[in-house]
Amino acid sequence: MSQNNTIKVGISSCLLGKNVRYNGSHKRSQYCVEELSEWVEYKPICPEVEIGMGIPREPIRLVEMGGQIRVRNVTDHSQDYTDPLTDLAVSKSSSLDELSGYIWMQKSPSCGFFGVKVYNENGMPGPDPDQGAFAKKVAELHPHLPMEEAGRLNDAVLRENFLTRVFAHAVWRQSVQSHPTPKSLVEFHTRYKFLLQVRSEKHYRELGRMVGGAGSGDIKSLSESYFELFMHCLKQRAHPGDHVNVMQHLLGFIKNDIDHATKHSILNLINLYQEGVVELLVPITLIRHYAEMLNVEYLLNQKYLTPYPQRFEKYNQSQFKEKYFIS
Ligand code: SF4
What we know:
alpha/beta, 3 domains, three-stranded mixed β-sheet, 10% strand, binds iron/sulfur cluster
């Protein structure tokens, strides 16, 4: 991405180490601050500070009252912050259009995105969790924006899924959204073909049908429908067997230009991935290595092999080659 096309990601301010929590502390996320920051520009927001609650402040929580979930002061339920928090999300909505993702602080009645505790009026936690009031409204106003909680980014599969969606969202903005033409849509779909296929064959085929009709009708509205289903498809979890099928298919593009022993090594690593012995990155890196060496442009354009930059930075290339005996 060029400097002008920096990927912008919203984030709960306390995750960047800012002392904005109710007790004046922070919840610095090492991953967000030290790793992901290399690739994205953060747009931090602390909604509680922005609505004027101050630092320090009395703690708040989600409370169910009269069938409604409200954000209230923990001890004094007459202090209600629900409307200011949702109003803030509405007032910031247009400035959030520039984002390609959002990372939330878990458990917060303002920022939590999954399973925030909801208490009853007697102070007991109820059975049905909800979302923080600010996060909930932002998600409602930006339904296709990739969102995740910082704590969940410690899970490799969830992290990979989130990053794939963030970078795809950014590529979409820069390619199709800024130039919605049949050509830009077809090119985008072609690059994401295998990433879609590995997640959902059904959605991949439906998206292919939409792209097939790109030459007729209103391309802008078709693009919007495409993007909605595209982001939904990327949210699906890919299973190891589906990755194996896709990697074997990709191997077909280079198999006639590599010797038998090399082909055997790649197939062996694909099997080891399926058995859980090596991570997905290993056979993918090997396939990409040969795609680069043989200059197979179709493969090199595939986002399946490079959905986001970290994937290949994680391994020192020379160490990788030594370990897996690549010439
Ligand atoms: S969780 Fe949200 S509201 Fe709470 S301190 Fe962090 S940024 Fe502020």
